[in-house]
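Instructor's aside before we start: the two examples that follow are unrelated to each other. I chose them only because their records fit on one page, so don't look for a connection. First example below.
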Amino acid sequence: MVEMHKPFSIPEKARVEWLGCMRELLEELNISDEAKQEFWDYCEVFSKHMVNKSTNLEAHMSLADHR
């Protein structure tokens, strides 16, 4: 999936918006709370791998960490 999305700019803001859509979907599903939580946990980890563009603030924080 990461390779498939490389041509696209995916900043943290897009990740958060995507997670919001996933949260809405999960609320509509008729599955156990445990299953919802497991899938949510997966989505959070997975979505972090998809971010491929830093915002200026993220870039600044990254530089500050290396000092």
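Example two begins here.
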Amino acid sequence: MINKPVKKALGRVVKSTEMPDITKNFSPKQLAEAITAKRTGMKLTLVDVSEALSISKPTLIKIEKGDTSVKLANLLKVMEYLGLSFSIVSDDLIPNSTTTGVNDDEWY
């Protein structure tokens, strides 16, 4: 058997980031931080994820910055790939919930 040399990764090493406190009220920033933390925790680069999902690197950067202009389909593709998911909870089921300041035009 011929031993093939181990291929070394090109570019920078991915540095893990801390997962945000996901028990707090949801925000685009919190989701963006969770996506970044999950990706970096898996040692995946922006290029790794964007190529695997056939989305552009700038789109992935927007997702990781919490940009609400990104298509929900792309956001969900990234979340699924990284093993993240949403739970849908009705405000009617949460005691003392308020919906002030909600903007239905944005994905969060």
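DSSP finds four helices and no strands in the chain.
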